[in-house]
Amino acid sequence: MSQPIEQSFPILVFFRYDHLPEHLKSASKPFCDLAYQVAKEAPTHHISEKITALRKLLEAKDAAVRCYVH
Fold first, then answer.
1. Model confidence over 4-55: pLDDT tens digits?
2. Can you give the residue ranges of every domain in the chain?
3. How far apart, in whole angstroms, are the C-alpha atoms of residue 24 and residue 3?
4. Spatial distance between the Cα atoms of 70 and 12, rounded to a whole number of angstroms
5. pTM, to two decimals
6. Sign of CA dihedral 18, 41, 6, 4
7. Cβ atoms within 10 A of the Cβ of 35, count?
């Protein structure tokens, strides 16, 4: 039995968006979708690159969401 993807990649918790107002959800959701795709589907033979990709995607998501804060 495999473990949930969030246990392998705890950074995924920071991509959650259900708590956000609607106008911020729409900015955040594509980043969440891509983060889960990378975590689940990207090859694991370069795990450090996978983790780096998730970390940089989180940084981009945070910046994008801040653009919509008013």
1. 999 999 999 999 999 999 999 999 999 999 999 999 999 989 999 999 999 9
2. 5-67
3. 30
4. 25
5. 0.90
6. positive
7. 21
For residues 69 and 42, give the distance between their C-alpha atoms in angstroms, rounded to a whole number. 31
Reading the block at residue 62, the tokens are 């945070």
- The burial of 12, by beta-carbon neighbours within 10 Å (0-12 exposed, 13-18 middle, 19 or more buried), is given as buried
- A 10 A CB-CB count for 55 gives 12
Neighbours of 36 (CB within 10 A): 16
Beta carbons of 50 and 39 less than 8 angstroms apart: yes
Span 46-68, pLDDT tens digits: 999 999 999 999 999 999 999 99
Query: Token pair for residue 2?
Result: 């495999």
